[in-house]
Amino acid sequence: MKPIKVGVVGCGTIATVMHLPGLVWMRDQGKVEIVAVTDAIAEKSKAASVAFGVPAHFSDLDRMLSETEFDLLVNLTPIPEHFAVSLAGLRAGRHVYTQKPMSATVDEATTLIDEAAKRGLRLACAPEHPVLPVIQTIETLVRGGAIGKVAFARVQSSHEGPEQHNVPRDSTWFYQAGSSPIVDMGVHGLSRITAILGPVRRIACFSGRSRDVRYHTVNEFKGKRIDVEIDDSSLMMLDFGAAQFAFLDATYCVEATLGPSLEIHGSEGTIAVIEKGFRLVDIRLFESSKHVWRDVEIPPRSPCRDLGVLHLVDSLREGLPLRLTGERGRHLLDVMTAATRSATEGRTIELTTEF
Questions:
Q1: pTM for this structure?
Q2: Average pLDDT, the chain
Q3: How far apart are CA 145 and CA 271, in angstroms?
């Protein structure tokens, strides 16, 4: 079976830390061939080309699309560019995997979905949670009745703020218009809980600004002032129908916590996910009939650092069903944009998208 030829657009932190190392693993397994990388900053694409053994590098997407032959475009550009880059890739006849969120509006997401369908192409969207073994294990337990009828869930999607993360970037843009902890962090919790409970039917959200000024605490930007222009703390109430609810925090206000990152309560038990530093430690199941907690076996995770793109690659090569669909990405976007409207307008918002 021939490898899938891949072109990558965007050579920033998420590309060099997650996606390109993952693609190198896939290349070593004979699943992909990385043919080109591009970035608006020529030095970044050249450096990525050298570091990851990619034969061609560009500073212009149109040139990469016209001058190289490949099957799959991996879109790792900044958030405001996701829609235009993905649309260009689809119109050039490439399958597309895009980082989250897939676009700025639900209408733009629908345009991408329709474009892919019209051309017989696959469109896949981050985050990758629905294909992670831990989420699939919990989904199987819940849908198999291990905790009875779900009543509610608590979902943590917060951290202390990107300015405290020791990565080579200026984190100012996280606090400017167009970004928010809902888009940056909340999307992960939404991806996890919707993979388990299905689409959200209604949402209510409170948002506010906990601090007006922040400062970089690490790297070459240490001490740099960041003026906070967006709400950095949002709390959501999600209604999944049939009296199943969830509480989700999406903030830059949690430096430490002893609570589970995910906890789902049902009529016959509870499932709790324990993490430390965003790394899975344990899954625990409380069985009401026995009144005891027990460990749930954690399936082994693939050594690949990019299970989202791997999922799409395997789908293309082996004809496997695609879970990280454009429709799923559109629903997450619908929830996130509705959350902002709910907080601004002080009302509950009904959702109509499905996946």
A1: 0.95
A2: 96
A3: 12
